[in-house]
Amino acid sequence: MEGVMVSVATGVMNSLLDKLTALMGKEFKLHSRVKRDIAFLKDELSCMNALLEKLGNMEVLDLQVKEWRKQVREMAYDIEDCIDNYMHQPYQQRSSGIIGFFHVYVQRVKELVGHHGVAQQINELKDRVVEAKHRRKRYKVANEVDPGTNNVLSIDPRLSALYVESSDLVGIDIPRDHLINMLDDGEQSLKVISIVGLGGLGKTTLANEAYKRISWQFDCKAFVSVSQKPDVKKILGVLLSQVKNQDCATTEIGDDNQLINALRSFLKNKRYFIVIDDIWNTQVWNAIKCALLENSCGSRILVTTRIATIAKSCCSPHNGTVYELRPLSEADSMSLFYKRIFGSEDLCPMNLKDVAADIIKRCGGLPLAIITMASLMITKSDGREEWVSVCNLIGLGLQNYKAEEMERILSLSYNDLPYHLKTCLLYLSMYPEDYEVDMLQLVRRWIAEGFVKVTSGRNLVDEGKCYFNELINRSLIQPVSIGLDGQARGCRVHDMILDLIVSKALEENFITPIGDPTQTLVSQEKVRRLSIDYRGPEVVMSQSSLNLSHARSLSIFGYSEKMVSISNFQALRVLDLESSVKLQNCDLQGVGDLFHLRYLRIAASRITHLPDQIGDLQFLETLDLRRTWIRKLPASIAKLRRLIFLLVNGSQLFDGVGNMQSLVDLSGISIYNECSKNSLLELGSLTNLRTLRLTWHISDSRSNSSMCTDILASSLDKLVRSRLRYLHIIRGPGSADIALNSWYSPPHVLRELYTPGCCFQRIPEWITSMVNLYRLCIRVKQVTQEVLNILGGLPSLLDLELRSEAVDEPMEMLSLRNTKFRCLKIFRLYGPIMGLMFEPGAVPQLEALSIEIRACQAQSTFADHLDLGIHHLASLRDLNVWINCGGAKVEEVEALVAAITHATNLLPNHPTPRFYRDNEEGMVKDDAHVEQDIKQQLGVIEMK
């Protein structure tokens, strides 16, 4: 549990070491003596960093070591701040202060290292921590460590789950029966099933319940728990003793190979059931798997883990399944909570029900959290005030309500993280409870803070996405908004995990959160990162008690009349302002003075312009204005030559954009009639651009509109030949057409092409070469069978939106063949077509379909039996059908609806089709329907 403090310290230390290396480069022409001092600093701090990383593997640290670590952390922050101040000054001002600065800090490092003897004691400190029994003698500390405290750490926190009575369990019946059906399915080949989920969700309990119910059916059985640092030989020995039902002492013989051979020999012709509980890495599983012989006796292996990739690895290549365990429902959560305290909900005093409901909600369906809170509340009186007091503490950190067991179990997942992921997870404590965190916003903030380091040739954003996915993989954050590519677009943090990381971040002065009116914050240290939530009850913050001048990150949610002034934060790297309505332009005054700033996000609809001083932010990398109403950016924006991400909401393309050669993402930009030809030309020079999203508003009425469209098409041609991956073009009403089919070179590297407003007379030849394209939205003169055949050959296409513009052209019944669109998941076909048929085996991955069908033509085409082949779409989950009723009889429309409904009822997912009727006034009605309409009209007249 001490690893968090180390990760915080090493996080800033790694960034500092990089900057010390940069200072010794040719860009900074420093005196040789200064360079020697910098080299000394770098060497000594590198030694300190190595020690900090070693301490990260220790569970218990001496108070003296903790104090030393705190000094190193704060000193690293201060040194980095001073270096940043120096590096950002004009060159002529650097020489005067840099020598004195480094002499001061060199001396401080020498004193610190000398006092603790770090260089000579790295190995000694490691031994002292590992060998707990010698801790007092080796550290020579006056205050003895309480042996009882350390003994608690050796108890397996999963023991209680193994011995819980079935009658005490709630909400386990359905998952238990489902799991048993998966295990007891009659298959004779070996089957491996993995249960995966967050710590405290009940994986061990579920596995144990299934084990108790069906293990008697097998010839032999075993239930073995694996620790984070397992002894494989001991595990194999326990397995052998359990399957043979003999004393471990008589079976634990020989080395690993002998144990594996003994297990394989014993299990060869037996039907066995083995549970391997809580696996943390694939190496351990691979070792255990060698001993579990694959036979045809109907054997079963059940694995539990918190890590999704390990769950999948355990199942493969066997006939296996990953079972993802979900949180308890609200009803089951309430039942468990009340049962633990009162016996049933009926026995809960009325004055406590609303408070109890709040406590249950904050537990987020986590059984461990509910049981822990119930165990705490059972010790309290029935006084409402005492319950409210405990409820208010939830959200201020696990330690505030003494949830030691829960903290210990959740901390297992945290402690298993590498250092860089610990720091990134802690950073999520900047966000309020239940906040949906956007993945790309989070990654950009990590980058601005210096947490992301490039490896394996990836760029910073892709590396940050890997960090994000690994946190999901380890069940520490919950994915939301899953895209077609399987990538989560955002995440939430479970309340209990949030409490864990908040408590750790507070302890190490990593983040200072403000927002709960019950919390009294008095910080004696420099604030390093500040998060203020003004959205709840009035937040009172005494700025006089906080040292804000060294804060690196400031997040403000909501608005207050007494809002903190951003001019107090001279060391900011990250500024995120999110207000629903009240944040005004005047609140941004002083933002140009934040010359360290790398990330600026403003989310407030009343912001209509930026101050001209924005151009002074020479180190700014991200400028996110998507939730503002800024239509014209200041001219100084072109001075931001390090800007990588410029995200706006309809702001005009500006002159000088060609100066911003670092731009990778330019999204939300608009091109109006006032836009200059020069800016369109400059757009084509942004050869590092990967994402471009623009709206085209130049109308045909502009005198040189044809020239402007040609310039834009030429600039786009240059971009798609370089690094552009994502291109979105929206045409405003009445705007001129853009000739994209005139591109000279095929856009091989494009992954998304979204151009619903640009009409192609025919499918361009270069589209067949777009092997990386996974999303396509285009408009063609007319959708024909040839068009479908061409697009159906794109190997990576997942999402297709196809619009037909022709109205008077002859139409044909289209069909999707089983050799086309093998990967397609979403298909939207809009415009005048006769209909669409699906052959057996067509679009096997299709999950969502939106189509338009002409009822009269469909009926005449199929005559006796209307069959569009929808029943062949086995993966379909969502269906939208627009029925063009023009020229069709009422019964023809109803027959079409009935046929499609019948077809969807035959599908495995039983999607419910949604029908939308167009042109109903054009339906052909027989005499009976005409008479019915007349009667309805007469009835309306009589009512009047």
Write up what this structure looks like:
With 944 residues, the protein is an alpha/beta fold. Among the domains are: 3-153, no CATH class; 159-324, P-loop containing nucleotide triphosphate hydrolases (Rossmann fold), CATH 3.40.50.300; 330-394, no CATH class; 407-510, Orthogonal Bundle (Arc Repressor Mutant, subunit A), CATH 1.10.10.10; 781-944. Helices cover 39% and strands 15% of the residues. It contains 30 helices and 27 strands. It has a 17-stranded parallel sheet. The protein has a five-stranded parallel sheet with strand order 2-3-4-1-5, sandwiched between helices. Helix 1 runs parallel beside helix 3 (63-87) and helix 3 runs antiparallel to helix 4. The longest helix is centred in the first third of the chain and has 25 residues, at 63-87. The protein is globular. The relative contact order is 0.04. The model is unreliable at 1-7, 90-96 and 113-167 (pLDDT under 50).
